[in-house]
Amino acid sequence: MEHAVSLFVRSIFADNMIFAFFLGMCSYLAVSKDVKTSLGLGVAVVFVETITLPVNYLLQVHVLDPLGLGYLSFILFIAVIAAIVQLVEMIVEKFSPSLYNSLGIFLPLIAVNCAIMGGSLFMQQRVLLDPENVKAIANIGDAFAFAIGSGLGWLLAIVALAGIREKMEYNDVPKPLQGIGITFITVGLMALAFMCFSGLNI
Amino acid sequence: MALSKKTKEAFLGPLNVNNPVLVQILGICSALAVTVQLKPALVMGISVTIIVAMSNVVVSLIRKSIPSRIRIIIQLVVVAALVTIVSEVLKAFAYDVAMQLSVYLGLIITNCILMGRLEAFAMTNDPLDSLMDGLGNGLGYAWILVAVAFVREFFGSGKLLGYQIIPDSWYVANGGFYENCGMMLMPAMALILVGCIIWAHRAYNDKEAK
């Protein structure tokens, strides 16, 4: 249990998907123009990550590893992610049309969000680690903790950037640097700030 | 064989004016993560170029028989199969680089350049144009990677491709005056460098346009 909590906190701060690994950068830069939309996308990412990562964990440990089919993992993981995104989309559409309308456009995009696929690929590396290692994922509980943590870390990062960009609208930025250029530099500075979590030990 | 103007444009456009990283803002994730050293950046650039070109051709060949409702899944499967092949080849012939690239090799599947080009170009154009478009976008991506990795490796560790460039006797430890810039090795500097490249690129192209 203690291990899962530590994994959870680390994956939000020290191993943040955006600032430490640059995963999900494309939609991160494209959608972070205002806080409300980015919150919607962030919630969708947390949701899909929490479902797909444990499913891929079970597949990896109980199907791929015993059969020695590790090289098929890319195709299997992406198929699982695409299928679950489709499924989630249909379920949300049926039971909560209002949520569907607010998330609607983002849900299909999440299938190709690298934060989701990256989470599964990190999980694949981490199941091989020694259980004593703080980064190891030893059971399904750890997989859940890692999934929720990395999803929330992504949510935190995109909402923070959206807040800064809303304020930055009023700043006088050199013309060629406007828009995407200054956003890159802002994210770089935010990543520097997040580095102070890297020594975090729980 | 004379290439038509459109085919040439499909190849040359993405190298500069329509660069996938700088202008279309696609495929940023891996562009930033693998650029600490020059060698993995080169391997990554070449792998992505091959995969974009091949998947563009394959999807372009079968574009007329893909039902549009499930096209995303079909595109993903084509890409995933190609990435699996490339990753197995790398593991066989360049194991240490494959380990350095770690998850980012698998993440080529979700690299937005691939899906973006498949959706925007290969689905509506014939195989030759798609091949050129794939090569152009792949190389456009590769040169950014190499440029960023060059700066980061040279200033961060004084090496290029793993060979020491800055003489040992210059270092403070050996009584010299020089110290490596450790900042360059941090992930954050990749972002700031790409930001600066975008700045220079825009400033230059705006001037050209006027």
Structural descriptors:
heterodimer; A: 202 residues; mainly alpha; globular; B: 210 residues; two-stranded antiparallel sheet; 9 helices
Overview of this protein structure:
The complex is a heterodimer of chains A (about 200) and B (about 210). By secondary structure, chain A is an all-alpha fold. The model of chain A has no long low-confidence stretch (mean pLDDT about 80). Chain A is globular and about 60 Å long. Chain A has one domain. Chain A contains nine helices and no strands. With about 210 residues, chain B is mostly helical. Chain B has one domain. In chain B, about 65% of the residues lie in helices and about 0% in strands. Chain B is built from nine helices and two strands, in the order H-H-H-H-H-H-H-H-E-E-H. Chain B has helices at about 5-10, 30-35, 40-60, 70-95, 95-100, 105, 110-120, 125-155, 185-210; strands spanning about 160, 165. A two-stranded antiparallel ribbon of chain B has the order 1-2. The two termini of chain B are about 35 Å apart. The interface of A and B includes residues 30, 122, 188 and 192 of A.
